[in-house]
Specification:
This protein has 430 residues and is of the alpha+beta class. Helices cover 31% and strands 28% of the residues. It has an 8-stranded mixed β-sheet with strand order 7-11-12-19-18-17-14-13. Bound molecules: 4-amino-1,4-dioxobutan-2-aminium adenosine-5'-monophosphate. Homodimer.
Length: 430
């Protein structure tokens, strides 16, 4: 019976064959303990000298890290391992012997591991992070599908900038200049006017010269956009969505969270509603905490966000930022035109901003005024104005950064470990 490690619990007491790699090994005289991995999981296989032919025992004892094999044996319960089962081996067929695998169980520097990302992905830690990433994506589709959203795929090659022009990747589109998408939002607004509630999930490109543990040059963003929804209603969607994702990861990634030694008691508290503080109050809070560089009108950086997050054990919304430091499309607060109806959601434990969102300007004249102020001209922007001309409605949306969310839930410090092949300021390979 050929199976995988993840399916092993179904075969207790039976003999099975698994295609696997050797991730680690130890042996003591008459017994060899093989740590197997097969992509679906990790499991120990025990090879006892007395139970197998001599050549099989020698093969097991001398097997090198990352050698590939088909391995056969009986599945028994093993209460000591977190996985709960192990294999008592009866046969091994070597597929390929791996010679001098560069990543050994000893410590390696980050640059070395990044250079070997194509192999580093095989480690138990990276396997766990990728599984958690996958669960967040799965839960995202479930949440938005169950709540009546239609998945929409905005273009990657665009003629317009959604978030300002400084961070654009330029490319040639035949005779025209084009950019790699920095957000699908403008297109999602058009789609929301056609389909009501929509969401996208796609790659996002920002030519940011930031070298921090939260910035990638290429990252993945989940962007919902909702017609007939105001800012407060959008915040409710955000807290429901984030709570759902966190609880899904807790339920479906127990082994992975355990491998990463994630403190899950902190994640268990993540249930809607989330606290909200205004930008004004955040400025006061930071001044009280001794930040001399903060005054009304400045944008917050990572240390500010971390300091604010410290006061809460759930993600916190910082709402109503000054209009002048936010994007052109955000709707001014009807009671105070110097701030806009927007919010950033800051994750707890210092993982930073995971969501940026806002209610959008729906008034044609005000949008025309913004176009003038921001010098938005030409066919790349003309169509977006028409959304305010033909049946304009209140609408809101937001973008959640997948990698920062993976970092938070996995408890990994740097976003470079949260995407299979990170694109960083000085890294385009592997
Ligand atoms: O706040 P941002 O720039 O929002 C937008 O792009 C809106 N157009 C979204 C919308 O309303 N539809 O980015 C949203 C999120 C951030 O909160 C952060 O989680 C993530 O995207 N993000 C990054 N993640 C990794 N590396 C970067 N360089 C990131 N820049 C933003």
């Amino acid at each position: 019976m050929k199976t995988t490690i993840s399916q092993v619990p179904k075969y207790e007491g039976q003999a099975v064959t698994i295609g696997a790699w050797l991730s680690n090994k130890r042996s003591s005289g008459k017994i060899a303990f093989l740590q197997l991995r097969d992509g679906t999981g990790f499991m120990q296989a025990v090879v006892a000298k007395n139970d197998v032919a001599e050549d099989i025992f020698q093969l097991a004892k001398n097997m090198t890290q990352e050698s590939s094999m088909y391995i056969t044996g009986n599945i028994v319960e093993d209460k000591r391992s977190p996985f709960g089962y192990e294999m008592q081996v009866s046969d091994i067929k070597l597929i390929q012997e791996a010679v001098d695998y560069p990543i050994t169980p000893k410590e390696h520097g980050t640059e070395f591991l990044m250079d070997h990302r194509h192999l580093w992905l095989r480690s138990k830690r990276q396997h766990s992070v990728m599984k958690i990433r996958n669960e967040i994506i799965r839960a995202t589709y479930q949440f938005f599908n169950e709540n009546g959203y239609v998945k929409i795929d905005p273009p990657i090659l665009t003629g317009a900038s959604a978030e300002g022009t400084t961070e654009l990747f330029h490319t040639q589109y035949f005779d025209e200049e084009a950019y790699l998408s920095q957000s699908g939002q403008l297109y999602l607004e058009a789609a929301a006017m056609a389909l009501g509630k929509v969401f996208s999930f796609g790659p996002t490109f920002r030519a940011e010269k930031s070298k921090t543990r939260r910035h990638l040059i290429e990252f993945w963003m989940i962007e919902p956009e909702m017609a007939f929804m105001d800012h407060d209603e959008s915040l409710e969607v955000q807290e429901q969505y984030v709570s759902f994702v966190v609880q899904s990861v807790l339920m479906n990634c127990k082994l992975e969270l355990d491998t990463l030694e994630r403190d899950t008691s902190k994640l268990e508290k993540i249930k809607a509603p989330f606290p909200r503080i205004s930008y004004d109050d955040a400025v006061e809070m930071l001044k009280e905490k001794g930040f001399d560089d903060v005054e009304w009108g400045v944008d917050f950086g990572a240390p500010h966000e971390t300091a604010i997050a410290e006061s809460f054990d759930k993600p916190v919304f910082i709402t109503n930022y000054p209009a002048e430091i936010k994007a052109f499309y955000m709707k001014p607060d009807p009671e105070r035109s110097d701030v806009v109806l927007c919010a950033d959601l800051i994750a707890p434990e210092g993982y930073g901003e995971i969501i940026g969102g806002s209610q959008r300007i729906d008034d044609l004249e005000l949008m025309k005024q913004r176009y003038e102020e921001h010098d938005l001209t030409g066919p790349a922007y003309k169509w977006y104005l028409e959304l305010r001309q033909y049946g304009s409605v209140p609408h809101s949306g937001f973008g959640l950064g997948l990698e920062r969310t993976v970092a938070w839930l996995s408890g990994v410090e740097h976003v470079r470990e949260t995407i299979p092949f990170p694109r960083l300021l000085n890294r385009l390979y592997p």
